[in-house]
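Name: Calcium-transporting ATPase 4, endoplasmic reticulum-type-like isoform X2
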Amino acid sequence: MGKGGQDYGKKEILGEKKESNREAYPAWSKDVKECEDKFQVRRDFGLSSDEVEKRRRIYGWNELEKHEGPSIFRLILDQFNDTLVRILLVAAVVSFVLAWCDGEEGGEMEITAFVEPLVIFLILIVNAGVGVWQENNAEKALEALKEIQSEHATVIRDGRKISSLPAKELVPGDIVELRVGDKVPADMRVLSLISSTFRVEQGSLTGESEAVSKTSKAAAEDVDIQGKKCMVFAGTTVVNGNCVCLVTDIGMNTEIGKVHSQIQEASQSEEDTPLKKKLNEFGEILTAIIGVICLLVWLINLKYFLSWDYVDGWPRNFKFSFEKCTYYFEIAVALAVAAIPEGLPAVITTCLALGTRKMAAKNALVRKLPSVETLGCTTVICSDKTGTLTTNQMAVAKLVAMGSKGSALRTFNVEGTSYDPSDGKIQDWPKSQIDANLQMIAKISAVCNDSGVEQSGHHYVASGLPTEAALKVLAEKMGLPAGLDAVSSSANNGGLRSSNIWNKIEKRIATLEFDRDRKSMGVIVQNSNSGRKLLLVKGAVENLLERSSFVQLRDGSVVELDQTLRNLVLESQHEMSTKALRVLGFAYKDDVPEFATYTGDEDHPAHKLLLNPANYSSIESKLIFVGLAGIRDPPRKEVRQAIEDCRAAGIRVMVITGDYKNTAEAICREIGVFGSHEDISSRSLTGKDFMDLRNPKSHLRQLGGLLFSRAEPRHKQEIVRLLKEDGEVVAMTGDGVNDAPALKLADIGIAMGIAGTEVAKEASDMVLADDNFSTIVAAVGEGRSIYNNMKAFIRYMISSNIGEVFSIFLTAALGIPEGLIPVQLLWVNLVTDGPPATALGFNPPDKDVMKKPPRRSDDSLISPWILFRYLVIGLYVGLATVGIFIIWYTHDSFFGIDLSGDGHSLVTYAQLANWGQCNSWENFTASPFTAGNLVFNFDTNPCDYFQTGKIKAMTLSLSVLVAIEMFNSLNALSEDGSLLTMPPWVNPYLLVAMSVSFGLHFLILYVPFLAQVFGIVPLSLNEWLLVLLVALPVILIDEVLKFVGRCTSGVPTSARTTKHKAE
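Structure predicted for Calcium-transporting ATPase 4, endoplasmic reticulum-type-like isoform X2:
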């Protein structure tokens, strides 16, 4: 933990000592008088200025703390906390020192020597820069959280009202007045309602799908956050009414402050991705291997730079050659450069970036590149319900109307999952003639309604309460009676033609606002044609039935509401409630004598009745009941298939929601998380019940889907933490402020792009542009495909590096001159290997990629058999590169290919292996040879034939290495599949990449300046034929190894499958 984190921890401990008594006080469970006494304040006077200052010294300011993140220097140092990077750094430093020492001689080799360390340093700088940028983004979630805080508040202090006090100046005990549209500035206890109702939108904090009605009545002490109906929380928004509140918690002690602390805590415990862990393990193994090989090289060549004589049985007269020691030290550096796949970070980044583009096309916007790979091994998806599995757009699912006299009720199923009036229709709807009863339901739905629905781009959005918007859409689907249908063609209001017509016919002149006691809303309307007054009412079915005396039948006739019909309606209402539908009833009254002459005039006697909400129940009496509708937040159409795909892919789905248990269970049954008749008593728990379990891990280990309802932020975090402890790779979805800590803690945090808060988006690794669960499943499939392709190119690059190591090791072991220098190896690893490795990222996905279980996060990148295969290939690469070097020095032709055209001298293998003793050979001469336009002459120093003269042999070795690695990339198309079944053209990008790599190799061969930098010369046609002859067998060797692998893989594969299932 950095300095900032330590300070924060200390502040929190001090705060606990100072404020423990206050925090223990449950204001929501005490009545208003007790709360005022506890905080020593009167609501009509508020706190005095002196008291405010005294409390500020105790509690501080009402703001979220600024966490001091790690310094830039610390972040940069952390980027070098990686084994591969450390090896590279050491190799670069040593290369730079050697180049500096050799630089005193000047000349051409000075340029070559400095290229290698400078390129390695450049790679390290770019890698560190990307890492710092990614880690710096982690702090943005905390900054976004601060933006949702209120800036001002209306406060009563010293007996007077301050209308715009900065919210940061609030202290516990302050009296605050809230109005419609206000953002709540602190956690507060409701003291009294000024309006008849007071509703707050707190879904972003608690996960509830609708605005919550608040009251001043106390709740139980052990109730969850959703049950604290007398509390309002910082950062939430008032959508209806106004009230007076008492500040109970400020700053970091508010619910949003706790979320802030949880995000900070979660960001401290972020882990490396599965791929990063594997690459780190690989780096550690590589370090050990490089160390052993370097030691072997030195031991084998010790005799060349350290010798001694034996005198009386003891070694004496030690002779040390610094020049030779430096030479073999350079070989050790070359080994390190050869063993490390320097181009791997760049290729991985490129592949992940290409993956993000593919995912973006599928509406999954990746914010952090490593998330693409992590998605591929996701084993559990913890999904929010509202807006992810459902549309977050309320829709009427069932309509119940009255039948003919003495007959049963009529039930209509309503299709559609959005606010689009053309989305679905009403099944079995009487198109020819809408009867009087249905007309009245449509009229009440359209007119007794304060919401609106408008088209925004290609979709529809609601303003006002979602349930009322659903009724407006129902009125559109119901249509108009024959007489009014012609009129509607001229009226179009954002797609709500029917509602517009009904509102023109029935002009609203008064509103009886909803309140929590009578649980209904009414409007008094006047018919624009006849002038007749009507009272239209909608609300809770039980309450409407209590105040209804009559019922309207199908033909419009009105009869008395008897007990039989009342029971029928209640049965229908109960049936819909058990399916988690929110049921609203419709009623009207055609005899309202008090309002017979009322037109909205404030001087009219009826106006006084409307000013007092206590009169509303008596006005809404002796009603005529007409029908009821079941409303819900419907599941998305494509989610059920996505859940089935998850099941086939071995991914468990857990639904974690703040919504009610019954509602969530009904949705889970409908989308296939649970069976329609499955016993889910052990699979569906509230967040509180889960936390009370003795062994919560055993509950989470159950096969199949799980549901957690009424979940709070801490419950979500605990579930994610326990799953990760159990070795699961967890993807967590969320859209609210309350989801941010769990999003940060999960392996993959997925935020909603449309409904998501900025806090959730900044805490996430991926954002869904369409808020759709099925997009996650598609992204997981893409992640698996990308991982398989990454595995292909990682293996390809590692196998290439094994070949380079074998080449250098054989050179040192045989004692022949150095065939490949570090700058050439660096060129091959970075540039020549890069395009094919990147192209392997375009391999087409397996058709059954989502039919296999997720890979385990600890699965090895390279199995023992694959390692053996690449060791064999590597051994061949070493033999081929060293072999062609020896062939050029010792043969004038090979398999009929003439190599004498350049005029070079031939030597024996013994001379080549002991080239260091050249000065002691008698009569040794080397004739001049040509390479392109260059002529190499050795008249002054024939022994220079093994130093400067090896340039042609080096070029052949480098060309063979490049050619073999190009052909080896074809082997990497499939792990076990033959090129006969998966030909090269299945990935045309690979063929293009091979052409690019060969083109780059030709570039450094035939451009004089580049040839000088890399220490190579142009080759003739015969020499290219030799290169191809030596390189092509790598395909045949790997085909034989793949065939052996396919023949022997039957038993191990089944064994692996059995083991995985057992686990």
